[in-house]
Design brief:
alpha+beta, Heat Shock Protein 90, single chain, 2 domains
């Protein structure tokens, strides 16, 4: 892996600065009779300087290797006249090892540095009993503990910033998911409303217009046109109410139908040609969402009977017990035939969704020559359906 461009700049700057100090004769320790300088001369400090500069190239890609090699290089520098730049680059290697190294290195290196600093303070003083011996621990702390602690603080800050950014991204994704879900749910609700409000009236219009066109009888045509007009007006009224739902808050919106409107719905079905009877005993305090769902299921069931049912009586029954409202619609059922009016096939799906949205149950199917739609709704929140 190629060195990072910033590491190239750091290595080049360190090498250049060290060479400039060497050129003007500035060293970390004087030569001559200094017993600490085992490798005297002007040229030896350049070797640790060059190796430490090369280690800087690895500070980000191989921080552990760079630190170990840098430690050995620093030990070599201590037996020469030394360079301040070599020491400074070593502290940067320790800092980079904590910042860019593995989590284990980031945890271990500050602890080792603290232990070395403590030992470097206590042991020399205990051996020599000289206050100057405490400076050894200070130097070790400056070379290892200070950069290691700084690297740990920067790493923790970056980790916290990354975690905060990740949480923000997750929050944004959740918000977008919720928005999408809300839009999808609203689209499904509007699809159900459109289907339930308009399909029944348009089905009646299609059936009676077919009769008016196919039967050459003025009385039949007049009666069919009357039914067509009535369904057109009712469909237009329902569409206006649906459009009102989409208006801004504060606009006048016609109220949703309740179970009290069922007799009117039944009369409309009879006018469309169905032989319908209604038996109703709804709960006196039926919640509005339950009442609307029950009304729409009866409405859609009558529409399906108009399009698909065999000739014969259709029954609508509403009843209740202490916790549930029960809706049952039955119609004559024969072998499947082409519908008398085109449909979308979404009627049963919409009824099932309506029941599920308020915690109810729904089933529909043939049996004993009848098609039965049965739905139950909880009358109180949390009650079983």
């Amino acid at each position: 892996m190629a060195p990072h461009r910033d590491d190239l700049r750091i290595a080049a700057a360190g090498l250049t600065g060290g060479v400039l100090l060497w050129a003007v004769g500035l060293f970390a320790r004087p030569g001559g009779d200094n017993e600490l300088v085992l490798w005297d001369g002007a040229w030896p400090p350049l070797l640790p300087l060059a190796v430490m500069s090369a280690c800087e190239l690895l500070r980000r890609t191989h921080p552990n290797t760079a630190t170990l090699l840098g430690t050995a290089t620093l030990a070599l520098d201590t037996v020469t006249r030394g360079s301040v730049v070599t020491v400074l680059m070593y502290t940067d290697l320790v800092y980079a090892a904590v910042l860019y190294g593995t989590p284990a290195t980031a945890r271990l290196l500050p602890r080792v540095s603290a232990l070395l600093t403590l030992l470097g303070t206590i042991v020399p003083f205990a051996v020599w009993h000289q206050p100057d011996a405490l400076l050894i621990g200070l130097v070790i702390g400056l070379l290892t503990l200070t950069p290691a602690t700084t690297g740990a603080l920067v790493r923790n800050h970056r980790s916290a910033a990354e975690a905060a950014q990740l949480r923000a991204e997750q929050t944004a994704l959740l918000a977008e998911f919720d928005r999408t879900q809300a839009v999808t749910a609203e689209r499904a609700r509007m699809a159900r409303e459109l289907h339930d409000l308009v399909a029944g009236h348009l089905s009646a219009i299609a059936i009676h217009s077919t009769a008016a066109l196919s039967i050459d009888d003025p009385d039949t045509s007049k009666k069919a046109l009357s039914v067509i007009r009535e369904n057109s007006v009712e469909g237009l009224t329902e569409m206006r109410r649906l459009i009102g739902i989409l208006r801004q808050p504060g606009d006048t919106v016609e109220p949703a139908p309740t179970l009290d409107a069922l007799p009117t719905l039944i009369e409309g079905a009879r006018a469309n040609g169905l032989d319908v009877t209604l038996t109703t005993d709804p709960a006196p305090d039926t919640p509005a969402p339950v009442a609307l769902a029950a009304y729409r299921i009866v409405q859609e069931s009558l529409t399906n009977a108009l399009k698909h049912a065999a000739p014969g009586p259709v029954t609508v029954t509403l009843g209740h017990d202490t916790t549930r409202l029960k809706v049952t619609v039955t119609s004559p059922y024969a072998a499947p035939e082409p519908p008398r009016a085109p449909g979308s096939g979404a009627g049963l799906v919409g009824m099932r969704e309506r029941a599920a949205l308020i915690g109810g149950t729904f089933d529909a199917g043939p049996g004993q020559g009848r098609w039965t739609v049965h739905a139950t709704f909880p009358l109180t929140e949390g009650a079983p359906a």
